[in-house]
Amino acid sequence: MRFVLLSAVTAVAVWLVTFLPLDVEVSGGDAGPWARIGVFLLVGAVMAAANLILKPIVDALALPIKILTLGLFSLVVFWFMLWVTAWLTTLVPWAELTIGGFWSTLGAALLISIITSILSAVIPGARR
């Protein structure tokens, strides 16, 4: 149940970031509003799964660089999780997350992580 809430929270964060000029787009779900919501929920589930499975491994591998940069390399790890999500959604024919250049996508990844953290703290049961 917690994964479903985390997926929904992440989907809302991705949806909010798509309104900003940060080169993040979600395509698919042209059949109607419920299909569009399903596409965002799929992108949120893929991102939540990547954060739950891959992020601890990447964090462990990037620990020396994080120590040297005093934690700023965490932004690159956030960007990498967004990039992995975009790559994994290209495998699905009816939903795709597309990202732009490195710097704008880095800002998008930062905003997605901030929005997800705030919404996870506000919504009961969605905390990690």
From TrEMBL:
The chain crosses the membrane at residues 35-54, 61-82, 102-123. It comes from the Bacteria. Pfam families: Phage_holin_4_2. InterPro entries: Phage_holin_4_2. Keywords: Membrane, Transmembrane, Transmembrane helix. This is Putative membrane protein. It comes from Demequina mangrovi.
